[in-house]
Write a structure and sequence with these properties.
The structure is a homodimer.
Chain A lengths: L5 E4 L1 H5 L9 H14 L3 E6 L12 H8 L6 E5 L3 H10 L3 E7 L2 H8 L3 H16 L6 E7 L12 H14 L3 E5 L7 H15 L3 E5 L7 H10 L4 E4 L19 H10 L8 H14 L8 H5 L10
Parallel strand pairs in A: 1-2, 1-8, 2-3, 3-4, 4-5, 5-6, 6-7, 7-8
Chain lengths: 306, 306
């Protein structure tokens, strides 16, 4: 049996929020069910943000409520603040993902707060969640950890500072996010090593984008550095607000293909993933889905690690 | 200064031979000149094969003759046999690339010969070339070294057998080619190590395709294993005859971006590469060029290693 690697599908959140079209709630739920059927055990189904800012996510409460009945699947919601965390808890989410931008400029542009002010918000979320009856996992993402479209280069010691503050705040997991997709494999190795040196195993996930075509290579560097959880999106859904036409999140199908081919066990079935892709395409008929394995077909040399 | 990595642009050969349209000779030459201007120091400009089989390559003699005047650029031609090698020599090529398919079935389908019969042809080419006045470099490619669309899995010991026979035949360099793009990074590491263990430094190049989306990750594995020469194609030109719509060679632009970002020195300028891309697009107006860096634009974090 291969070593397990967990993939969190973020298409319903990070993918859909970049789409002009708003996917109907029923199709979202059908898509999430198809993803669970393909073997995904973590799905980020939406975000609790003001609907005026991101109307695509206005139905997240309803989507979480419908998804949480899926057995063995952790339903994740992105929340920017305590209010969002409270809404996520009330809707029944299993886990929340709170982004903190390492780039000060990016942080202010997104949350009107500096990075360390946003860490204080994370601390308030941790305090509130821990006081509730039901447990809810709290992940915090170091956004723009590999570069920023506003500030440019993001120094590694700055990533270490923010990650250390998040670990001290008591989150369950820390994600390093290449929000704009500027990272390269050598940098992934260096940042993972530096942050792990500071916070240890609480660093457990990478969130990578394929803006420059290096997303899967960056995932390779990550898995070789010992990371065992990755975010990705079916059909590479997503994009970059600063680069129209650019690629989005790394493609779930291709990531599964690579990891299984290398002997890692994702628990995900490619054929059922293609079936989920059909649901997605039906929900977004105007969107060109990415993904090389889906286009070329599964080769006869492919065997799942399981 | 970063460690140098050499990129051989194979678009004019491996890319164009897969196109339905035939690029006019003058545009080919204009494209090759633009590639040289961007810093490419090895360009595979065509192949000496029967024009009835591959009409796109009928003008290779003329293209080689025009390209060889480019200063400091090694002009490479693919040749399947002694006759092709003689034509390459007469046209003034600096180097030839002779493919030998490791998969017996693929070898017979492409050359009407088994793998080791084709090695005998390579031996005849080496003998003939070494007897000429002018030196001409001889590279031999282990095609289908990472899997075959006909046979499926290609055992590593079979790759080692063919590579060892090629080394014994006296070629200058050996290329491991993922002809159909089935390889994964763990396999790249394993095959490179096994072949290098058998033939040493004469193994000096990888030829990778992006059929399954792992091409750049496979290149990363290769460079981390010490390989310092890679084939790639501008705009990811190429494709796979067995998978219509599949991606072709790894994208030169994205490969340069990764290597330079990691501190390797390719000698290639991305902006001038984009200029060459415009020439290519003009020559193939119906073809959708691939490449994430070209779509997203060069990020402000990018610095050439040089």
């Amino acid at each position: 049996m291969g070593e397990p690697v967990s993939i969190c599908e973020v298409g319903p959140r990070d993918g859909l929020q970049m789409q002009k079209a708003i996917m109907p709630t029923a199709v979202k739920i059908e898509w999430i069910v198809a993803l669970a059927r393909a073997g995904l055990r973590e799905i980020e189904v939406g975000s609790f943000v003001p609907p005026k800012l991101i109307p695509q996510m206005a139905d997240t409460g309803e989507v979480v409520a419908a998804s949480r009945t899926l057995e063995g699947v952790s339903i994740v919601a992105l929340v920017p603040n305590l209010k969002g965390a409270q809404r996520a808890y009330e809707s029944g989410a299993d886990a929340i993902n709170v982004p903190v931008s390492v780039s000060e400029a990016h942080s202010r542009a997104n949350t009107n707060k500096g990075s360390l002010e946003q860490v204080a918000e994370v601390r308030a979320i941790v305090d509130w969640v821990r006081a509730q009856e039901r447990p809810m996992k709290i992940d915090a993402g170091c956004a723009t950890a590999f570069g920023c479209s506003i500030e440019g280069t993001v120094p590694i010691d700055r990533v270490v500072t923010v990650a250390s503050a998040l670990a001290e705040a008591g989150v369950d997991g820390i994600v390093l996010a290449d929000t704009v997709g500027y990272g390269n494999p050598a940098q992934v190795r260096a940042v993972v090593r530096a942050v792990r040196g500071a916070v240890g195993g609480v660093l457990d996930r990478l969130h990578l984008h394929d803006t420059m075509g290096l997303g899967i290579a960056n995932a390779l560097a990550g898995v070789e550095e010992g990371i065992r959880c990755f975010d990705s999106a079916l059909g590479g859904l997503g994009g970059c607000p600063f680069a129209p036409g650019a690629s989005g999140n790394i493609v779930t199908e291709d990531l599964v293909f690579m990891l299984e081919s290398m002997g890692f066990e994702t628990g995900i079935d490619l054929d059922l993933l293609f079936a989920a892709r059909e649901v997605l395409q039906r929900g977004l008929p105007e969107t060109a889905l990415l993904g090389n394995v889906a286009k070329a077909g599964i080769p006869k040399t492919y065997h799942r690690a399981a």
